[in-house]
Design a protein that fits this description.
There is one protein chain. Helix content is about 30%, strand content about 25%. The protein has helices at about 25-40, 95-100, 115-125; strands at about 10-15, 20, 45-50, 55-60, 70-80, 85-90, 105-110. It is elongated, with a radius of gyration of 18 Å. The termini are far apart. This is Ribosomal protein L10e/L16 domain-containing protein. Keywords: Ribonucleoprotein, Ribosomal protein. GO terms for molecular function: rRNA binding; structural constituent of ribosome. It comes from Galdieria yellowstonensis.
Length: about 130
């Protein structure tokens, strides 16, 4: 399944560059977005995360061959250019500047074109 388009939500954040994100960065962003959505809507909103820390990172040691693998130090997830990182269904647009300080990847805000067109038509009918 491709994560270059919004699948479930109305708003989201797209990565503008390819990088690795640490598990702590992903969790910090997720918690920050949940807090912003809860403050804006007054209730818990649906939030989908499309970057998973699924690559183990081991401590690099300068040893000869045959010593075995080092213990796992942490987990990282690969972020590709153009990939949707987070999306949510609440009708709340969160500015990228509020999130960018916690993220090592440059982000862009994305809106579902069908929802955007419907909201534009509603505004014109008033």
């Amino acid at each position: 399944m491709s994560w270059y388009h919004l699948r479930f939500g109305v708003y989201g954040f797209r990565a503008l560059e390819e990088k690795w994100m640490d598990k702590r960065q992903i969790d910090a962003l997720r918690l920050l977005l949940q807090r912003k959505l809860r403050d804006a809507t007054g209730k818990r909103a649906e939030l989908w995360t499309h970057v998973e820390p699924n690559v183990p990172v081991t401590k690099r040691t300068e040893k000869r061959m045959g010593g075995g693998k080092s213990p796992i130090k942490g987990w990282k997830g690969r972020v590709k250019q153009g990939q949707i990182l987070f999306e949510w269904a609440a009708p709340v647009e969160i500015p990228v500047e509020e999130i960018q300080s916690k993220c090592s990847v440059r982000l862009r805000s994305v809106v579902d074109p069908v929802y955007h067109l419907a909201s534009m038509q509603r505004n014109w009918s008033l």
